[in-house]
Automatic annotation (TrEMBL):
<feature type="transmembrane region" description="Helical">
    <location>
        <begin position="146"/>
        <end position="167"/>
    </location>
</feature>
<feature type="domain" description="OmpR/PhoB-type">
    <location>
        <begin position="2"/>
        <end position="107"/>
    </location>
</feature>
<dbReference type="GO" id="GO:0006355">
    <property type="term" value="P:regulation of DNA-templated transcription"/>
</dbReference>
<feature type="DNA-binding region" description="OmpR/PhoB-type">
    <location>
        <begin position="2"/>
        <end position="107"/>
    </location>
</feature>
<protein>
    <submittedName>
        <fullName>Winged helix-turn-helix domain-containing protein</fullName>
    </submittedName>
</protein>
<keyword id="KW-1133">Transmembrane helix</keyword>
<dbReference type="GO" id="GO:0000160">
    <property type="term" value="P:phosphorelay signal transduction system"/>
</dbReference>
<dbReference type="Pfam" id="PF00486">
    <property type="entry name" value="Trans_reg_C"/>
</dbReference>
<dbReference type="InterPro" id="IPR036388">
    <property type="entry name" value="WH-like_DNA-bd_sf"/>
</dbReference>
<keyword id="KW-0238">DNA-binding</keyword>
<dbReference type="GO" id="GO:0003677">
    <property type="term" value="F:DNA binding"/>
</dbReference>
<keyword id="KW-0812">Transmembrane</keyword>
<dbReference type="InterPro" id="IPR001867">
    <property type="entry name" value="OmpR/PhoB-type_DNA-bd"/>
</dbReference>
<dbReference type="InterPro" id="IPR016032">
    <property type="entry name" value="Sig_transdc_resp-reg_C-effctor"/>
</dbReference>
<keyword id="KW-0472">Membrane</keyword>
Length: 262
């Protein structure tokens, strides 16, 4: 059964469809969330009131898909959740940051069925107040048939405008690896590093290769993230650039931290 959350009696969220929107105009005014944004929100609501550590969220959202991201990407995802909830009409900040621990949801939530959602008082008012008021003013000036047509046109224009604003706020952030620094090629394999010092990156790459052989064929790409979450170093070995839809990668985690001056 499709799970539907009613958050603070104001916003509806469907994890299965990654859909979020105001209860007063659902699903007409709902938007589709980016994958990690939807998954993080779902985990927070499932464990409402519990603190979810950064490590837990990294594992549950990204690493199960074979992806490695930085702490900054996690904070961008949490910020996108807050923006989406606010844009949908939720005034309260239900996603709280717990210093040195993680994040938690402090929402008032309850699960509703599709039937209950469509018959509830909040779902009955499918047209936002601004459009209702505009329709009343138009009816005073022109005949009933033309009024209905204008009301539909206004609703369509506002819907398109709302979708554009939400898309602008929730569009996927640029891949974190786009900001990595090239350290040149070793045996035809391109090295991209989170460090700016190319020589140090090559030196550390060679040091890592001695600890655990890194097999990267000519034309492949290695992405190195030093001191990931202050726990160690992550190496992502791919057969081509990660932005390519046909890319194949595998990751290696080194628990030892490397000292750097960045």
């Amino acid at each position: 059964m499709n799970k539907i959350y009613l958050i603070n009696e104001t916003v509806l969220f469907e994890p299965e469809r990654r859909r979020l929107g105001p209860a007063s105009g659902y699903p007409q005014w709902a938007v589709t969330l980016h994958g990690p944004v939807s998954e993080c929100l779902n985990l927070l609501l499932e464990r409402n009131g519990e603190v979810l550590s950064q490590r837990f969220l990294f594992t549950a959202v990204w690493e199960k898909q074979g992806a490695v991201v930085t702490t900054n990407a996690l904070y961008q995802t949490i910020a996108s959740i807050r923006k989406a909830l606010k844009t949908a009409g939720l005034q309260e900040n239900i996603v709280q940051t717990v210093p040195k621990e993680g994040f938690k949801s402090v929402a008032r939530i309850r699960e509703v069925s599709p039937e209950e959602m469509m018959t509830s008082p909040t779902a009955a008012a499918l047209t936002p107040p601004a459009i209702q008021e505009e329709s009343k003013r138009v009816k005073k000036r022109i005949d009933g048939t033309l009024t209905v047509k204008i009301a539909y046109c206004l609703a369509a224009l506002l819907f398109i405008g709302a979708c554009f604003v939400l898309y602008s706020e929730l569009k996927r952030p640029a891949p974190i690896y786009a900001h990595y620094h090239s350290a040149g090629k070793i045996n035809g394999c391109e090295i991209l590093s989170s460090l700016r010092d190319n020589n140090k990156s090559r030196h550390l790459f060679n040091a890592l290769s001695k600890r655990y052989p890194l097999t990267c064929a000519p034309g492949g790409v290695v992405y190195i993230t030093f001191n990931q979450l202050q726990l160690g170093t992550v190496v992502l070995v791919c057969d081509r650039r990660i932005e390519n839809s046909q890319v194949n990668c595998h990751s290696i985690f080194y628990s030892e931290r490397f000292q750097d001056d960045e």
